Amino acid sequence: MPDGIWAGEHFVIGAPEGGDQRLKALFAYWLTLGKAANLPRRTDFDSTEVPRLLVKIALQDVVRDPIRFRYRLMGSDVIQLRESNHTGQWLHEIYPNFEQYITYKRLATVVEERRSIWCIGQPTHHSRSEFRLRELLHLPFADDGKSVDTLLTAVL
């Protein structure tokens, strides 16, 4: 998938020129975790490497057939943005018809293509109304190095 636009948001594979420095640092750290063609495991991620971002991170478990996502963890800023703590909940239960959302398509692309996506744009589903622009980074993890089973999303 080339860089482009989805529903009013710009997305890139890799790091954008004008991206937030905190996300650039997270992305650079994530790149150091994988080995050869393998994706990093979630257990390779050391949260002490990005302490300022922990409140802005959500982890989602990934299951397949069909692809579904469940919040494993939500940082306090993510909870505030979503106006609720959805830890332990499936996204398709929180958001009816979630498979039709741009967010679902973006997350599924990260899973299927085994690569990060960086987005800058307007929120594509429910968030506090005063947030008109956001920047986020989706990073895949795979315990076997191949099949994505966890996503880390940092939201600014």
Pattern of helices and strands:
EEHEEHHHEEE
Across the major sheet, the strand order is 1-2-5-6-7-3-4
What is the helix fraction of residues, given as a range?
10-25%
Sketch the major β-sheet.
Answer: 7 strands, antiparallel
Radius of gyration: 14 Å
3D shape: globular
The strand count comes to 7
Q: What structural category characterises the helix and strand content?
A: alpha+beta
Content of β-strand: 25-35%
Give unreliable regions as ranges: none
Q: Overall mean pLDDT score?
A: 84
* Distance separating the two termini: 24 Å
Description:
The protein is built from four helices and seven strands. It has 156 residues and is of the alpha+beta class. A seven-stranded antiparallel beta sheet has the order 1-2-5-6-7-3-4, with helices on both faces. The mean pLDDT is 84.
Entry keywords:
single chain; seven-stranded antiparallel beta sheet; 4 helices; globular; 7 strands; 156 residues; alpha+beta
Summary?
It is globular, with a radius of gyration of 14 Å. The protein is 23% helix and 26% strand.
